[in-house]
Structure to design on (348 residues):
């Protein structure tokens, strides 16, 4: 049973606390955050210790794993400090807002012999695992077209609620880097690396932010497939549109909406398809967190954390290890560069 410490005291830190509390192989020792009042309230809710600052938390020898739940562009300092203190790290998405900053984190983690993992909670739902299995088994034949569609909505109040929101320095971007990154990660997890990208982006309805609220990118994958990413926080809906990942090939098509399938259709059926039909087909058009980030449950975080603990104990890489967490940021960075320079960019 590994002991956790949380750095951060906001909404995301509460997700972390809920997930750790539900874990089978971890427990929450304490929390450190910038606001002592918020930190105290969170610690009271989850019956754990309050640390006066990050240094005090990192000095606690009982804590083995630190989760980072701070503002995106502030992850670097917390991760470097945790690694140098010998703590394993699980950091919220994005691991950092540029690949250069991520590489600094990964280098220091290697130097100090600690595990670094990102949080991509959507990888841990049963539907994505069935999806991945179908890809790995070659059931699509040649993959031809893929799509990630994140047509979400955030009101002006959301961006006005924190000075860091909608800034390049601390948010790292807009609808792609903050909201769409989970679905982009799923696309890369399923279909592999991207060879080239060309993109357009704009801020269409929000005021006072530096970043995009709408973006479209056209992709060419290394495996030859062509794809599109649609990402937005400017698509109003009464209940929110689910985030979709679609993969089509010469022998099959699968459309996943959040954590279940709208389409599961292969030229050659297999016995395991019945499990999908019985348990994993979508019955709702309501998007998970599409209009309200508080609507996301902590199941994926719990499974993400449990996988990291198991990986440390078994000496293997976590499913969302630092190199994996880097890939989505690299692609999003290439999309931004292409959109800003009106050119095709290569991602590695």
């Amino acid at each position: 049973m590994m002991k956790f410490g949380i750095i951060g005291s906001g909404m995301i830190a509460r997700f972390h606390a809920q997930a750790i509390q539900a874990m089978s192989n971890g427990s929450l020792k304490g929390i450190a955050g910038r606001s002592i009042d918020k930190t105290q309230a969170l610690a009271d809710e989850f019956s754990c210790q309050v640390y006066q600052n990050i240094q005090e938390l990192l000095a606690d020898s009982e804590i083995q794993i630190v989760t980072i739940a701070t503002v995106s562009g502030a992850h670097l300092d917390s991760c470097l400090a945790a690694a140098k203190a010998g703590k394993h790290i699980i950091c919220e998405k994005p691991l950092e807002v540029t690949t250069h900053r991520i590489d600094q984190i990964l280098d220091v983690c290697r130097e100090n012999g600690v595990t670094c993992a990102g949080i991509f909670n959507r990888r841990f739902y049963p539907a994505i695992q069935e999806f991945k299995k179908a890809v790995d088994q070659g059931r699509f034949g040649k993959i031809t077209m893929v799509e990630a569609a994140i047509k979400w909505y955030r009101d002006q109040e959301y961006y006005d609620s924190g000075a860091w929101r909608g800034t390049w320095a601390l948010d790292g971007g807009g609808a792609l880097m903050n909201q769409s990154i989970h679905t982009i990660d799923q696309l890369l997890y399923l279909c592999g690396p991207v060879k080239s990208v060309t993109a357009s982006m704009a801020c269409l309805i929000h005021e006072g932010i530096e970043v995009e609220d709408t973006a479209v990118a056209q992709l060419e994958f290394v495996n030859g497939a062509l794809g599109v990413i649609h990402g937005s926080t400017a698509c109003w809906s009464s209940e929110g549109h689910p985030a979709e990942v679609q993969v089509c090939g010469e022998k099959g098509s699968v459309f996943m909406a959040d954590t279940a399938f709208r389409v599961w259709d292969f030229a050659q059926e297999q016995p395991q398809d019945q499990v999908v039909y019985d348990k994993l087909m979508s019955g709702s058009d309501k998007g998970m967190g599409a209009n309200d980030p508080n609507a996301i449950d902590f199941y994926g975080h719990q499974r993400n954390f449990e996988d990291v603990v198991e990986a440390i104990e078994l000496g293997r890489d976590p499913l969302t290890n630092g190199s994996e967490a880097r890939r989505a940021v690299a692609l999003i960075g290439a999309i931004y560069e292409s959109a800003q320079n009106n050119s095709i960019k290569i991602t590695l």
Q: What stands out?
A: The mean pLDDT is 95.
